[in-house]
Amino acid sequence: MLFRSTYDSSVLDGVTMHDLAIRAAVLGVIAAASESELRSDDGKRKLLIKIRDAANSVLQSKHWFPGIESAHFASIHLQ
Question: Which pTM does this prediction carry?
Fold first, then answer.
């Protein structure tokens, strides 16, 4: 999972600092996704928006600036 922010590096410092909580939130979003959502391009785009929002929610709950602007899959493998 890759995150992008055009704000200063403190946003990505927050991602690093709260990595485990963000991973847990991301896994929750992916677990709730349907197989069809994971297979279609539109579904993947919507899923990335949900992942971005979940990661920003974690940052905000930890009193960190929620400045993640986009999320990207480094790779995705369906089994």
Answer: 0.88
- The alpha carbon dihedral of 55, 67, 19, 2 has a sign of positive
Which tokens belong to 1?
Answer: 């999972």
CB 3 within 8 A of CB 68: yes
Kindly calculate the radius of gyration of the chain based on its CA atoms and give it in whole angstroms: 12
pLDDT along the chain (79 residues), means of 10: 90 95 96 90 94 97 95 76
DSSP code string of 19-43? HHHHHHHHHHHHHHS-HHHHHSHHH
What span, in angstroms and rounded, lies between the C-alpha atoms of 11 and 2?
A: 13
